[in-house]
Design brief:
CATH class of the largest domain: Mainly Alpha
CATH topology of the largest domain: Fumarate Reductase Iron-sulfur Protein, Chain B, domain 2
Number of helices: 11
Low-confidence stretches: none
Radius of gyration: 18 Å
Mean pLDDT: 84
CATH architecture of the largest domain: Orthogonal Bundle
Shape: globular
Oligomer: single chain
Distance between the termini: 34 Å
Length: 185
């Protein structure tokens, strides 16, 4: 794990942008470390959640947006549940991922490709469709062929259907995704 370099360029508006977009008051974070201590993915991060929060507070945009940890976040909300100041830290992480995508800070293409494949399936079906996510991911990256060895067992157990189960209200879900995309452009 790397240490945040405070001598890097600071963007004084970055904190305000993150707070406005996330709807959270990051300036109330006093670095207790509860978010980091509870994070189930933290051992794989190059920046811990509290470091990312501090980078955003200090206006260190590159530090906050240019790390691999954003893409490894499970979005489980353990960090949010543990925050004594009731900051939706998982929401802040999602906001930072969104900003990183928009501003070209994505540094882990396979993980972002998985996110896109997953969200595309949810947008189309109203819920995830594992076979579709896997196929989309493989097409985007050329990776994942090693996972095909698991397919026969998953199919036999009914864990990976051939066709997606489409929920009622999938058109409404698609409209949510469309509004989000329009808002971001």
């Amino acid at each position: 794990m790397e240490v945040i370099q405070l001598d890097k360029a600071r963007n004084t508006n970055f904190l305000k942008e993150v707070e406005a977009e996330s709807g959270q008051k990051l300036s109330t974070c006093y670095q207790c470390g509860n978010c980091t201590a509870g994070c189930p993915g933290g051992e794989f991060y190059d920046r811990q959640v509290s470091q990312i929060m501090r980078a955003a507070q200090l206006g260190l945009k590159e530090e906050a947006l240019g790390n691999r940890s954003l893409w490894l976040c499970l979005a489980c909300s353990t960090c949010s549940a543990r925050c004594p100041n009731e900051i939706d830290v998982a929401g802040v992480m999602e906001t930072l991922r969104s900003m990183a995508r928009r501003e070209g800070y994505v540094n882990d293409r396979p993980i972002e490709s998985f996110w896109k494949a997953f969200l595309d399936m949810v947008s189309m079906n109203g819920r995830t469709f594992e076979a579709g996510v896997m196929a989309d991911y493989m097409l985007r990256t050329g990776r994942g062929w090693s996972n095909l060895a698991m397919a026969p067992a998953a199919l036999a157990k009914g864990k990976m259907p051939f066709f997606p189960h489409r929920i009622k209200g999938r058109k409404e879900v698609a409209r949510i995704f469309k509004r989000y995309a329009e808002k971001r452009s």
